[in-house]
Design brief:
about 35% helix; Lipocalin
Length: about 350
């Protein structure tokens, strides 16, 4: 999925808060209503590649920032450098394409598990709310008008209505782009959607507490149990620019070693989406983390508390340097990470 070698962290934080801003071939729409229709069309066709083309390319983003940023700033210099070196934009587009498509595909997969016939969906309604102004002056100059909200559609074969949340539908230079979709629920209104979201969060919390109580009980059990031996949290960068956190659980297995089974996921920047990883260890001691569904993989070497290695795209074998360091995790952080494992990733 990921990463530019030269774009600085400020630009990347902007991109991660605006996942709409990095497409290879941007697609313009005249109004925010048209953007909603485009998103529904992509869902209907289950076409993640059409979805990522709703967003402008990174060279356009760089050009807009150059026109808006302080010419004495580091951000301005970095964007000029990108415009002068097209390969940087190619790396950027490759990363954001994978992130956006992964988010889209997760909605499609969840819908199929819920019994949605995507080819039979029809847009019912939508509700958009103008997003508040941020402190980022460049951000505000580039995309002054932004919306978030909900899109509702009906499966005409089952007559059921569903909703997804959408962030960062935005206007740039008179054209509309975006936005990031997530959180699919059976709901026909915003109130129903928020109630379903609240119910899910409560259910996840209650289930986690129940599981913890069961795990600590001394009563004998039947059937295989997942015994977590150790948990580790790593933080670092891809290509020294993209913030990432990796969480690993070490499980007891049928092997001479204490652990030979692992579970893991990672997330990038301030993205809400967690990406499940299949974990294995090669005979030479290198660790392999493969995204599930497959978008890319990491091959890393562990030296004490540090992972180093590369990430490779499954599509075009684009590579990025990876450097991660183990960091302390508070009990609250561990509880949240375990909740992601049990209720958001491994329950699917």
């Amino acid at each position: 999925m990921l990463f530019s070698r030269k774009i600085n962290l400020l630009f990347w934080l902007l991109l991660f808060s605006l996942p709409v801003m990095a497409r290879e071939h941007g697609k313009k729409s005249p109004t925010e209503q048209d953007m909603v229709s485009e998103i529904v069309s992509c869902l209907r066709a289950k076409d993640g590649y059409a979805y990522i083309k709703l967003f402008p390319p990174s060279d356009s983003m760089a050009s807009w920032i150059v026109q808006s940023a302080d010419q004495q700033s580091k951000l301005y210099a970095e964007m000029v450098n990108q415009l002068q070196n097209p390969e940087i934009g190619m790396h950027t587009d490759s990363m954001i394409d994978a992130l956006a498509k992964g988010s889209f595909d997760s909605v499609i997969t969840k819908g199929e598990n819920m019994g949605i016939h995507w080819s039979a969906i029809v847009q019912v309604r939508y509700e958009l709310i103008k997003m508040k102004e941020t402190r980022d002056r460049v951000y505000e100059k580039v995309a002054p008008t932004r919306f978030l909200g909900f899109i509702f559609f009906r499966d005409m074969l089952t007559r059921k209505t569903y909703g997804v949340s959408v962030n960062d539908i935005m206007q740039i230079r008179g054209d509309w782009y975006g936005g990031q979709i997530k959180g699919l629920f059976l709901a026909s209104t915003t109130d129903e959607y928020l109630a379903a979201l609240k119910k899910k969060k409560k259910k996840n919390t209650d289930s986690l507490k129940t599981a913890a109580a069961t795990e600590s009980a001394d009563a004998p059990t039947t059937g295989p149990q997942k015994i977590i031996v150790e948990r580790k949290l790593y933080s670092g960068m891809f290509d020294n620019q993209i913030p990432v956190q990796l969480y690993i659980r070490y499980l007891k297995g049928n092997c001479p070693e204490v652990t030979c089974i692992w579970e893991a996921f990672y997330k990038f920047g301030d993205q809400d989406d967690y990406i499940k990883l299949d974990v294995s260890k090669n005979p030479d001691g290198k660790w392999v983390f493969t995204e599930n569904p497959a978008q890319g993989s990491m091959e890393l070497t562990l030296d004490k508390d540090k992972y180093t290695g590369t990430w490779l795209s499954s599509d075009n074998q684009t590579g990025y340097d990876v450097k991660l360091t183990e960091i302390p995790a508070t009990p609250k952080k561990i509880e949240r990470m375990d909740e992601v494992f049990e209720k958001e990733l491994f329950s699917k």
